[in-house]
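Appendix B. Chain record.
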Amino acid sequence: MMMVLRLVSFLAVQLLCTGFQLMPMATSLRRTGHLLNAATISAADVKALREESGAGMMDCKKALVEADGDKEKAAEWLRVKGLASAAKKGERATKEGLIETYIHTGGRLGVMIEVNCETDFVSKGPKFKELCRNLAMQVAASPTVEYVRFEDIPVDAIEKEREMEMKSEDLDGKPDNIKEKIVQGRVNKMFNEKVLLEQDYIKDSKMTVDEFVKSYIATLGENIQIKRFIKFELGDQEDDDEE
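Structure tokens predicted for this chain:
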């Protein structure tokens, strides 16, 4: 009987020691698995999840890694972390915010911009102030910009430009359906250059201004909207008066 007990005790000790040795190995294997997953996540999947969730690119990639490439699980991971649905936040009312100003070096160009958020708490925080400052600088650096978003462009202005493009000589002889597509593409391109949210962000050309704002929506957890802006250039009023 004593021999049996001693044998059982010996085996138990061996199993415990072996288990402790295997634990680091298992952890290492899990980490290696994550590295392999990160390498196999495609850019297309990251882009699709980013468009669906409104979360940042790196957050989307991390979510896909955590979910082993499963898009639905990755979207859920983002929701739990509070990084998703910038678009849904966009439906919430924005009655607070800041009016930020920026005067370019030399004092010949100035910008005033109104950016709205949901709460007074966020509007007084340093991150929101930082966002407003960067947006004012973006407007100053974008001479062609006239509107915040495409929807702000008057319909008659778009129609007028479309009619002018339809008369372009290089379209003569082309079928009407082809002509319409070409004209629509030209008009969209021209007006996109006038829309603030469609511009490349001046400090990171890999993202648009719209994506830049969404990154702050994800960080601050509130709906953020650019309401309006105005630019002042020295001598503008005098030129208008002369005309």
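Further analysis of this model is presented in Appendix C.
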